[in-house]
Design goal:
This protein is of the alpha+beta class. Helices cover about 20% and strands about 30% of the residues. The protein is built from four helices and six strands. The protein binds a DNA duplex (12 and 12 nucleotides) through loops.
Amino acid sequence: MNRWLMKSEPDVYPFEQLLREGVGRWDGVRNYQARNYLRDQRVGDPVFFYHSSCALPGIVGLAEIVKRAEPDPTQFDASSEYFDAKSKPDARRWDLVTLKPVRALKRVISLAELKADLKLAEMVLLQRGSRLSVQPVTAAHWARILKKE
DNA sequence: GCCAACGTTGGC
DNA sequence: GCCAACGTTGGC
């Protein structure tokens, strides 16, 4: 089992929406490295749900993969903002996975707090210039972060 | 709004 | 294959 961190902008898709809807399709990933990680995800893998581009960036909830990667239909939809003219049904570029919410954290574990913990310095999230929206989290980092809650 | 860092595109 | 230009991400 692998553990993950997935970023979403709360203005676009907040954790509260995943909680409310009970299931969510993680579409719109248009970065190859992130896509490759999506393809590595397995049913049951735990996920930190991270809010980016907002007043308090940080981890806000826990989620879980409930369905493995499959073609992201928005890449074929000319009316979608995620449309990709270079993607063909027999040669797709982009995948999505399906998540379910587990629970909200009791409080936001902020980016600033993660940065302040030197034992987390190796996290992908904290690397210089790192922008990956889907990224692995080690078991040690996962446990250490959850203890902060 | 600013801007650094990064990824992608496309000319050559 | 190189690399400049451009678009995007995301913290601040």
